[in-house]
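Predict the holo structure. Ligand: cytidine-5'-monophosphate.
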Amino acid sequence: MKSNKLLYEGKAKSVFATKNPDEVIMEFRDDMTAGDGARHETIGKKGYYNSIITSKIFEVLEENGVKTQFLELVKPGTLKTLKLDMIMIEVIIRNRATGSLIRTYPFEDGTILNPPIVQMDYKNDDFHDPMLNGTIAQALNLATQDELHIMKNLALKINEVLSKMFADIGIILVDFKVEFGKDSNGNIILGDEISPDSCRLWDSETLDMLDKELFRQGQDDKVIDAYEEIFNRLLTDEDKKKWNL
Ligand code: C5P
């Protein structure tokens, strides 16, 4: 696999070409960054957990009618996926106010948001991922109005499915970020990952954080235990057997 051509190297994943032009290999690394890449550490086994958690979540979404780029967990850390032309927009859904929302607007931390907030940010570190509105996104040629509409509705559907999935294992889906891309036919499909790197996940009873926020707040020693906790609650014995875990 490693000898395959590197197509893209992000902050936590690398994407490699395969012999099939419609498929790529996605490697989840143990790198963890915060502050637009200003802080960078290696967190052992993070790639292992995030690749498996993403595989499980994408399978659940597929079962609920959401098309994803996931094809196969080749081995822990490595996914085979559809090749997508990624749209440079981060779609964020917020079920509770926290994080950058409460730094920008006068919400109290933890306030329940019903209906959820849908936010779109421009994926661009140089400009610190600024928040978009529809006309800015169109003026930057990031997406058409129709595409923005499709992404918003898909993100809300993903929120419905995942909020229930997490509630069933005693976790509140506080907020999350998703990215979409287009397949070779121009269909908009969920891509990238959904993992504790891209979600805020709180234990329903204790409200303990079980996600990357621990790293953002400098509690690096707690990160991998939190990710393992999500893995243990999410994966069934059947999943573990299927993927030889
Ligand atoms: O920091 P903020 O409150 O805007 O983050 C909202 C949600 O989006 C969080 O779940 C965070 O993990 C996710 N996010 C992300 N990648 C970014 C920005 C935010 O996964 N670049």
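The longest helix spans residues 145-167. The chain has seven helices and 13 strands.
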